[in-house]
Write a structure and sequence with these properties.
- The chain starts with 17 loop residues before the first helix and ends in a 5-residue tail after the last helix.
- By secondary structure, it is of the alpha/beta class.
- It is globular, with a radius of gyration of 21 Å.
- The longest helix has 29 residues, at 187-215.
- A 4-stranded mixed beta sheet has the order 8-10-1-11, covered by helices on one side. Strands 13-14-15-16 form a 4-stranded antiparallel beta sheet, covered by helices on one side. A 3-stranded mixed beta sheet has the order 9-2-12.
- The chain contains 11 helices and 16 strands.
Length: 418
């Protein structure tokens, strides 16, 4: 839940990411990076498969990633890598297919210092924790590093931090590097300050993980990638959280890559890049073959400084389907939405809602002025691109596997189920 523009490494006024700033100085920072969706499971499925949500079928939380899709972890395991994942949210649990390819999959955040509430759901009571805390996540990741079954093998470790997510509760005893000021008297500003503090806390824990790599003499040979699955609304367009919008605050994410001795330090790549580009890029950097079925493309040339990225390369975005029976935290949502960024222009279309929005991101980065009526030819051309992309990539619809009562209850408790 990390929007790039609230990280100090991306120019934010509060110092929310000193660790990531140091990491970027030692590697490459991508200025413009996008998640394919503003929802957890679809973006993670795209991260691992290099396919957009409409192609792999995980179009919303609770939809499982089917075994037919090869994941990055499966590809690296087949190449001789020891693979492990440490996750901090029930949404990424094994029951939803996210353990594919991981020899070690740790979704046990029961020791995390977070609320374990009893929740009513459809007349029943659900007990337990729905997410973990960054300090516990780092602890579990370091335990795996110290107890690896095959330390002679190269490893792939996926560490998933959850903390910037609502309910924005700071860890007990954590002292943020900044304090609320007079403007935080307003509730929305104070809530944003808590979000920012959790970004700083997560940054601190990433620093603890990186320092542990150095103490174990693993840092010099380890390729490190830091990215996010989506952003957070923070009322930029009338919505505090995520999922319902694919405006920039919901889909612009950080992407920082460090590989000592292989990638020259300190570069900033304008982009744009897509989360679906990451898997083929890693295969490419590691000298491993990758399937042509992957719809992302390798951006290793941009990392190595040998090729510039095309600033006009298309970025497609997807908003999950909403039934439209109720407002989503005060925001009306009906059906799916699709987005396309090409160069400075971005189009968002909601077919069921009957909405069409065109923004000039260079002149209007906050997406406040809808130019669709003023630029009808451009808008129609981009609509045609979206329709062609949908026809080419939409997976045949199948009836989703039914969720267990426990999984439905946990998703409902996190606000993820309709």
């Amino acid at each position: 839940t990390t929007r790039a523009d609230h990280l100090s490494v991306y120019g934010y006024e509060r110092d929310t990411s000193p660790v990531l700033r140091s990491l970027a100085a030692e590697g490459v920072r991508f200025e413009v990076a996008y998640a394919p969706s503003a929802t957890t499971a679809p973006s993670h499925a795209s991260l691992f498969t290099a396919l957009p949500p409409i192609a792999h079928g995980v179009v919303k939380n609770g939809r499982p990633l089917e075994d037919e899709f090869e994941t990055l972890a499966e590809g690296l395991a087949a190449a001789g890598y020891e693979t492990a994942a440490v996750v901090s949210s029930h949404v990424l649990s094994e029951s939803f297919g996210f353990a594919q390819g991981f020899g070690h999959f740790d979704a046990d955040f029961s020791q995390a210092d977070v609320l374990a509430a009893s929740r009513l759901w459809e007349g029943g009571v659900v007990e337990g924790k729905f997410y973990g805390r960054a300090d516990d996540t780092t602890r579990r990741a370091l335990e795996w590093l110290d107890e690896r079954a095959h330390p002679e093998q190269p490893f792939f470790l996926f560490v998933h931090y959850f903390d910037p997510h609502d309910p924005y509760i700071l860890p007990e005893g954590y002292d943020p590097p900044f304090v609320p000021g007079p403007r935080e008297a307003l509730k929305v500003d104070r809530t944003i300050s808590f979000y920012d503090a959790l970004l700083a806390y997560t940054d601190q824990e990433i620093g603890r993980l990186l320092a542990a790599l150095e103490r174990r003499s693993l840092d010099a040979e380890t390729l490190v990638v830091v990215t996010g699955d989506h952003g957070e609304g923070l009322m930029s367009h009338g919505h505090m959280h995520h999922g319902v919008h694919i405006y920039e605050e919901g889909v612009r994410i950080p992407l920082i890559v460090r590989w000592p001795g292989r990638i020259a330090p300190g570069a900033v790549v304008p982009g744009p890049v897509r989360l679906t580009d990451l898997a083929p890029t890693l295969y490419d950097l590691l000298g491993l073959p990758w399937s042509e079925s992957l719809q992302g493309v390798s951006i290793s040339g941009a990392l190595l400084g040998s090729h510039a990225l095309d600033t006009e390369r298309p970025v497609h975005l997807y908003r999950r389907h909403y039934a439209g029976d109720d407002a989503v935290e005060g925001v009306a949502a009906q059906g799916e939405k699709f987005g396309l960024r090409r160069g400075r222009w971005k189009l968002i279309e909601g077919p069921e809602e009957g909405t069409l929005e065109l923004f000039d991101l260079e002149a209007d980065p906050g997406e406040k002025a809808n130019l669709a009526a003023r630029e009808p030819e451009r808008a129609q051309g981009m609509r045609g691109e979206i329709e062609a992309w949908r026809r080419a990539h939409t997976r045949e619809k199948r009836d989703p596997a039914p969720l267990s009562p426990e999984d439905r209850a946990r998703l409902e408790a996190l606000g993820y189920a309709e």
